[in-house]
Amino acid sequence: MTQQTAGTASLDDTASARLRDLARLAHEQDGISVGEVLCGLGRTSMAFTILFLALPALIPIPGPFGIVFGSALALVAAQIALGRRTIWLPAFLSRRRLSPSVVELIVRYSAPILARIEAVVRPGRLSVFTGGTMQWLLSFPIFLLAVAIALPIPLGNYLPVFALVAISVALMARDGLLILGALFVSALAFAATAGLIQMAVTSLNAIGS
User: Fold this and answer.
1) How far apart, in whole angstroms, are the C-alpha atoms of residue 18 and residue 127?
2) Fewer Cβ close by (within 10 Å): the C or N end of the chain?
3) Domain that holds residue 111
4) Which 3-state string (H, E, C) describes 23-69?
5) How many Å apart are CA 140 and CA 118, to the nearest integer?
6) Counted domains in the chain
7) How far apart are CA 23 and CA 21, in angstroms?
8) Which of 91, 86, 81, 57 has the alpha carbon at shortest distance from 142?
9) Which helix (H) or strand (E) holds 7?
């Protein structure tokens, strides 16, 4: 990895600035793999790892991005729960390569969401909710949100992704109040996912009867 990639791991950077750095790097080297991103982020950027893996599931591009990145997020959440400080992904996920056009789409679609969240961020607010213990506790809703993203449910990604984006930005800024807001959105996402699953099962039963 280049020095430029490592530079994106600075905790002083905003999420949107880091994404723009990744977009520039992907353009310069004609694409970037998930493994390259995680390697460059290092051990201090767990929150940005969650953000980076959640955003592709939000973008209307062809391919099983929800399943791929939802599975990766579930693995990340499990490793946070186990207390790991570095992220391991299996080779088929780590080698998953994103083209410059896909990275640019991610930045373009996520920028308005990040702008709204970053506008209300207050670094250090209720920091008791952003420490290591809270990050461990958050691994459980993160895992459930990741499963919701991986499920092939039409329109089922938006609330889970929005909740994960809010959680990751709040952790980067150490904004505990935003963490609490993200947990509320997570609860809404769980309820919406359960409702969509129930509707799908009801429809299948109706077709089969």
Assistant:
1) 22
2) C
3) 3-208
4) HHHHHHCCCEEHHHHHHHHHHHCHHHHHHHHHHHHHCCCCCCHHHHH
5) 24
6) 1
7) 5
8) 81
9) helix 3-7
